[in-house]
Specification:
two-stranded antiparallel ribbon, 10 helices, alpha/beta, 17% strand, eight-stranded parallel β-sheet
Length: 271
């Protein structure tokens, strides 16, 4: 497994996203992923599966220190006292320290400075080893960096070949933040893409593997979501080949600013 280093954190470059996976399916997927060799698990308060994620980690038998665990604070809990309480609840459900705690979306309801003070307090209390952002624009990222008294180590954003995220990726690099890509397979839309199928034939790989390799070669962390064992294995099998510069360019050419799949209602317009 490769790693991305940022702000003192060492993040596995490929992990499991758990959005939409619930109950026993979630704990089983986490357990199986870790046994296969995954070492990064991503969840969130709003996913309502933190308890099952924690169960899966313990059932896997993988030492807790070998697993990098991410969760996210939901926007209705951004008021300082509520944020700290909600993170304590997350730790209780997970029954584990959080490696990386993120603000899930920017919110206009609570001043960002107040939320970041509470986020820093969570780190200082030892509830989370690292803190960061999710779905923040370049402008909001830079504002958050300026306001935070503790280092922010990432921005987790939607990123796949159909969505041009050049500005946000470049801003992360400029500020020393890791970029983490959710929905890296465009929620399954890539599987019938003729361009990706054609590129995949050259390497003996699937469209999903081509997309994940494209992200890895950008040093972007990818967290594809799946609960199927065969997909878990397929997504992990991306470290034995390298995309050519021409093929990387072909994937970049597929993207546009209009390629977004996910956008929460109150989220600001992206840069």
């Amino acid at each position: 497994m490769q790693f991305v280093e940022a702000g003192g954190a060492r993040i596995p470059i490929l992990g499991l996203g758990t959005f939409g996976i619930e109950g026993r399916d979630c704990s089983r997927a986490v357990e199986q992923a870790l046994r296969l060799g995954y070492r990064l698990i991503d969840t969130a308060q709003i996913y309502d599966n933190e308890r099952e994620v924690g169960d899966g980690i313990r059932a896997s038998g993988v030492p807790r220190n070998d697993v990098f665990l991410i969760t996210k604070v939901w926007t209705t809990r951004f008021a300082p006292n509520e944020l700290v309480r909600s993170v304590k609840d997350s730790v209780s459900r997970l029954r584990a320290e959080i490696d990386l705690l993120l603000l899930h979306w920017p919110s206009p309801q609570v001043p960002l400075a107040e939320t970041l003070q509470a986020l820093a307090k969570v780190k200082e209390l030892g509830l989370a080893r690292h803190i960061g952002l999710s779905n923040f624009t370049v402008a909001l990222m830079e504002e958050a960096i300026a306001l935070s008294r503790e280092p922010l180590i990432c921005d987790q954003v939607e990123y796949h070949p159909y969505l041009d995220q050049t500005k946000i990726i470049n801003a992360c690099r400029a500020h020393g933040l890791a970029a983490i890509a959710y929905s890296p397979l465009a929620k399954g839309r890539i599987k019938n893409d003729e361009t990706l199928i054609g590129i995949g034939r050259k390497y003996g790989k699937s469209p999903a593997q081509i997309c994940l390799r494209w992200l890895i070669q950008q040093n972007v962390v990818a967290i594809p979501r799946t609960s199927k064992v065969e997909r878990l294995s397929e997504n992990l099998d991306v470290f034995d080949f390298v995309l050519s510069e021409d093929d990387m360019a072909r994937l970049f050419a597929m993207g546009s600013p209009e390629g977004r799949i996910t956008n929460f209602g109150f989220a600001p317009q992206w840069d």
